[in-house]
Amino acid sequence: MKDLFCRREFLKLVGGSSPLLFPIFYTLRAEAQTNPRKKLVFLHWSNGWTKQFTPKSFGNNFQNSYVLSPLNEHKQDLTVLHRLNTRIQDRVSHTTMNMLTGAQLKQHEKPKGPSIDEYLGKTLGTPLASLKLNVDQTRTSTYYNTMSWRDNGQPINMIKSPRQAYDFAFKNFKFPNSIEEQQKVASPAKILEQNKSIIDLVRSDYQNLKRHLSSTELSKFESHFDLFRTLEKEIEEQKEPVTTDFLKCEALKMPSVSEEKSILSSASVQKRSRIFAQIAVAAMACDRTDVVCILMSEGVSALKYPHLNGRDGIRLFDKSAHHPISHYYKTDVCSDKITKLGVSLNVLERMKTEIDKWHSEEMAYLVSRMKEFDIFKNSYVLAGNDMGDDSHASEKSSFVSAGSLGGFFKTNFAKDYKGSRNINHTALLAAILEGFGRKGETFGYKSARKPALKDIIV
Questions:
Q1: Would you tell me which of 123, 141, 149, 291 could form a disulfide with 130, CB atoms 3.0–4.6 Å apart?
Q2: What's this model's pTM, rounded to 2 decimal places?
Q3: What is the DSSP secondary-structure string of 97-155?
Q4: Total number of domains constituting the chain
Q5: Distance CA 396, CA 391 (A)
Q6: DSSP per residue over 219-241, as a string?
């Protein structure tokens, strides 16, 4: 039997105006009820951890450690995956390449596929697939100074200059000049106002249309219009969009040439870390990218930390590089470079502990800034290391994360995997993909791939 009131006849009757409003209405309603874009940040630290990294207890509501104590204000948002196997096939520092690729590498070998930041970032619809920043800057080899790789296994250079980072992130982008301009795009009040305006337009067209319909046509039309009445009621009763956050896309000043010269000096590692964090957060808040990689410490890092002088009563941070310090657990050609200054291996261990703690401080700064700009709620910040345990063992790396990716991941949770070969960090990469809606996908080298790590999924 032919429909008494078909879609084509309906389009003729309304003259083309109201039908166009329905998809707009649906779109705006969906926008009002959808969380902001999910954000993903990867931080890479290096040269392993001391015992002071290990949480004092594991499980839910774990007890934090000395190294992670700067993150105490974000404790409810943290997850620690201790001694999770990265399955590196030798003891050389390769996780700058392994962390985001899941590659199984031998010495002088490179990944053959993409890193997860590129693989995922290219699908998210932002101007930049990911923003890649390098704080360390002491190594020139791609074995040590890059985290990100293309599909064909080619390394992607990480940006070392704050001015270049700013230009890359915001090229041809106009920052909003006022709060009012920002609200035009993201304000919950603005979205609600648009929804109600469309309700008024559709209601007006409906009243005009009724005059042209027969009783039979009107009955059929009323049945189609019931859905609109339901949506209208929801919007009229909605005081504000259900879960919309307001993203602050706030103008950020590019460092001057003279400022950059100071920032790039070897003694300014903390300045570089902070300015890169500011650029990263601004790029995410303005939806320039949803994915950021920050290489805080390169493999076999030669970085020195003069700003840490005086911590734990030690004043050698300006004379000692990160990698030799990390050999505190034995006497060898690396540790000898520092012990010849008249200090013991115990002092080297205390120095390494303070370096690790500083990395936690910088992660805490980044998370605090993401919260300030209202982008943390739906974000996941993951920090990993190219070594693990306290003996420079590659296979027992550890990861600490902040954020739940909009409620997808557990938080305030810690687990010790003890380097078990039954699980490896490709399961963590698969879990991240699932958090972005790609359920069932695995990632990394096929021989080592594991399904998503259920321990951390809500």
A1: 291
A2: 0.79
A3: HHTTT-----TT---SS--HHHHHHTTS--SSS-EEEES------TTTS---B-TTS-B
A4: 2
A5: 10
A6: HHHHHHHHHHHHHHHHHHH-SS-
Which token pair is 111? 């990944």
- The answer to whether 146 and 94 are in contact (CB under 8 A) is no
User: Which amino acid does the sequence have at 277?
Assistant: A
Same domain, 327 and 446: yes
Q: What's the average model confidence in pLDDT over 238-250?
A: 53
The per-residue pLDDT for range 187-219, each reduced to its tens digit, is: 455 555 555 656 566 666 667 777 777 777 777
Residue 247 DSSP code? -
Place of tokens 């990469």: 429
CA torsion sign for 198, 201, 202, 203 is positive
Say how many CA atoms lie within 13 Å of 169 toward its Cβ.
Answer: 36
| CATH number of domain containing 436 | 3.40.720
Cα–Cα distance between 14 and 11 in angstroms, integer?
A: 5
The amino acid that residue 448 corresponds to is A
Taking Cα atoms as reference points, which of 416, 434, 417, 410 lies closest to residue 77?
Answer: 410
| Domain containing residue 92 | 39-175+258-456
Smallest Cα–Cα separation from 49: which of 317, 386, 362? 386
**197 and 67 in a common domain:** no
- The answer for residues whose C-beta is within 8 angstroms of residue 39's C-beta and 6 or more apart is 284, 290, 291, 292, 370, 375, 378, 379, 380
End-to-end CA distance of the chain: 50
